[in-house]
Automatic annotation (TrEMBL):
Transmembrane segments: none annotated. It comes from Flavimaribacter sediminis. GO terms for molecular function: catalytic activity. Belongs to the amidase family. Residues 29-444 form the Amidase domain. InterPro entries: Amidase, Amidase_dom, AS_sf. This is Amidase.
Amino acid sequence: MAMTFREYRDLGATALMEAYGKGDLSPVEVTSVAIEAMEAVNPKINAVFFRDDAGARNAALRSEERWRKKQPLGPLDGVPTLVKDGLFMSGVPMYRGTAALAANPILPPFDAPCVARLRESGVILLGKSTMCDLGMMAAGYSSMFGPTRNPWDLDKTSGGSSSGTSAALAAGVIPIGVGTDIVGSIRVPASFCGLAGLKPSYGRVPYYPNSCPAAVAGPMARSAADMALLMQVIAGPDTRDFASLPFDRSLQGAPQEATLRGLRFGFLKHVGFGLATNAEVAVLVEGAVAKLQEEGAVVEDIDPPFNQQEADAIEDFYRHRSYHELKTLPVDERAKAELIDAWARKAAGDSGNDHHAQFLLTQLARDKAMQMLADHDVLVLPTVPITAFDAELSTPEGHGQFAPFCNTLLFNLTEQPALSLNCGFTLEGMPVGLQLVLPRFADRFALDLAVTVERVLAVCRKWPNLA
């Protein structure tokens, strides 16, 4: 009997690899189901803008032959995924989510490092997934693609900027996916879609080309174990990224249970700026923290050391990146991306002195964030203070564009690993994320801790059935 979409969705990458090894499933069969799922589900969620069915099927045939010979290329050989629009995929037009590039998209001459590692490991690339304009929104809003919708509630956003990848994961189209994160673009959609997502230490996953010293690529999945499996692949070395860290062999192999007893958690209920924490989010996060305490974790509340002035400076600092990118385009092309252009144009009057002052305030916030871990092993806080908002909006009504990033953006500045795990659902059935932040370079411990905390939280969930 042929595999059904629901069976495929519920297996996950780890189970697929076990089935390949036993000969119970083949990459050709699985890829066919993934393509059928994409066909059925994408009209509802708008997560995929480019498909390479023929290329995927050919790659699956090659993978099947390798498995027949018991010679898989890597720990994800034959597993389907999508590539985010913001990552170079050789020969495939790249829009970075914005209609400002509709007439003249970027045509990458090579793969980004993480995409190259996926290919080299035998991962099946189904196509490319959507993202918001220039990666600067916490929503699936895109002037190029239209809104990407959340599989848990199609009226809600999937989050941004890794919007298409997160929606495709939650809908079951793919079991693993690489996101990118400059202020929260892995963790916010992971929270909104009930996923596991890791922003690694800066440099842990080679990134090229890179226009910002805070942007990273990292793994997303429906489970912490699958997230760790993907991390094994994409953390492979690449000399093109001069900032990449030495290869960490400890990332190889399955994650191990971490010991929570005696581990010191600093609990940050709010960060001192941004959105107020929704009451249901607060209850679910506090309940998750209580479960960690039951396992022996030591938890201490932390008063937030940050203020709105620092938050505004951080947003202004990043605004210059988008303004520079858009300023190189013709005015009539920029006009096609009205929201991001209007947001970026606020940087037009800044002097070099103003921009440096913004940078200094980002460093002050960085220092404060680092100090919070001086007396703690891990920070814990809500990933986002709210659940997913309306799909047609770029940010919650009445709030600034960076407001939903308030709990995530600090930890890009500090270059620390930070991850989001689902810690439950609201009464309306929307996922809530728990964020864990660890010391710089502790990426292996982050994966071990993710698997442990996921087990402790034991969130019961039945994935959306959209097919």
